[in-house]
Amino acid sequence: MIQCCVSRADGSGYCRTMTETIPDKTPVEINLHSKSRLLVVAFEDGKRFELPCEYLRVFSKAKEVRTLGHPVGGKEQVNITHIEPQGQYAVRLLFDDGHDTGIYSWETLYELGERFQENWQGYLERVAELGISRHAPGAEKPQQRRVKMLYFTYLFKQLRKESEELQLPAAVNDVQSLLEWLRRRDPKHAHLFRDGTLRITVNKQFSELFTRIDDGDEVALIPTSPTAPVAKQAPI
What we know:
The protein has six helices and 13 strands. By secondary structure, the chain is of the alpha+beta class. A five-stranded mixed β-sheet has the order 2-1-3-4-5. Strands 10-9-13-11-12 form a five-stranded mixed β-sheet. The protein is globular and about 60 Å long. The chain starts with a strand and ends in a 13-residue tail after the last strand.
């Protein structure tokens, strides 16, 4: 049985369960995180891949993509809108740029996951060589983001504030990079943002480390324990 889910940026979404007999390299979870433009695929063998929508779009097996003769460009902001099961072996991914002919078999998704680093580096090198932009025509270049931070329990006490407005550097674009930046920004309190000690919500939805941070988001840091972690002592 395979659970296919779409979770949208506004918190809505849908799930479909596939119960047919299925082949090897079978996914047990296909979960779209629309806000982060990321498709998470987990397989029976324990492998779990986080595949950007842009990556899936430019590596589509559709004939019109395979026969182009050059890499697809302008898809940096592309997103998946629907996941449609195709029998017992594949899904069809529908993208918001109108591309809807890409069929992704379980073997294709597994291979794209296994070879992500190699494929993606090759793609970046190729588009740079040909002068192809990843930005859609007329798309604005990434800018700094302004977010509202909310702090709970011991964070509120030790930081002496329950909220603040922050302007994030351009490189801070997801929860993981936000936490890393918070640790660098305030070394005295870096231990308060230690991995594994916080649950994070973005716009009141519990997030993953890969959850995208956009301008105007509200990010809440909620400690998993009532006791604050202790700063590590420097070796003598």
